[in-house]
Design a protein that fits this description.
Distance between the termini: 58 Å
Structural class: alpha+beta
Number of helices: 6
Strand content: 5-15%
Order of helices and strands: HHHHEEHHEE
Length: 172
């Protein structure tokens, strides 16, 4: 791409294409907003992974058209993500199509067995998350929620404000 000396060409290509690719991602994120790399929904997560893969493609491009295709694909993915997030914020019915519903896995110290089975989550997964959340007694646990991102949230303490469970699927 730059010179006939293979080693020098590889060094120049790797460095310059990395700078171009990263700069392009930064510009796109500045235009789209920080939401571009959120993990709020599975759609966001997949978009983030795809952008990482396309950025790797930028750095490994062997010609200018391959580089341009990767840069255009990054912009397109971020544009689609922007459009989807706007649609989600304006249309409630679109939320169910693109996002997952958070699921209650534990309530007031009791495992929700049907939810564990349906979400393929084990008791040992939950117990590990309880330890991470510094839960000392299972009786302190007000709720454990499998979030739409796949993360597990542990809510523990004296009481639980019901607003924290708005939109969470309870029971099956």
């Amino acid at each position: 791409m730059f010179t006939d000396f293979t080693t020098l060409d590889i060094l120049m290509r790797g460095t310059l294409l990395a700078v171009i690719g990263l700069s392009w991602v930064v510009v796109c994120v500045r235009v789209i907003g920080l939401r571009a790399f959120s993990k709020m929904t599975s759609f966001d997560f997949v978009t983030t992974v795809a952008i990482g893969s396309l950025l790797a493609g930028c750095v490994q491009a062997t010609d200018w058209s391959a580089l341009m295709q990767a840069l255009i694909a990054i912009a397109a993915l971020l544009g689609i993500q922007y459009a989807v997030s706007r649609a989600r914020s304006h249309r409630d019915d679109f939320e169910g199509v693109i996002g997952n519903t958070p699921t209650l896995l534990m309530r007031d110290g009791e495992f929700q067995e049907s939810a564990l089975t349906r979400t393929r989550t084990t008791r040992s997964d939950i117990i590990a998350k309880l330890r991470e959340a510094n839960v000392l007694h299972v009786s302190e646990v007000r709720a454990v929620v499998l979030e739409s991102t796949g993360d597990i949230s542990v809510l523990h303490g004296e009481s639980l404000d019901d607003v924290l469970l708005d939109g969470v699927r309870v029971g099956y």
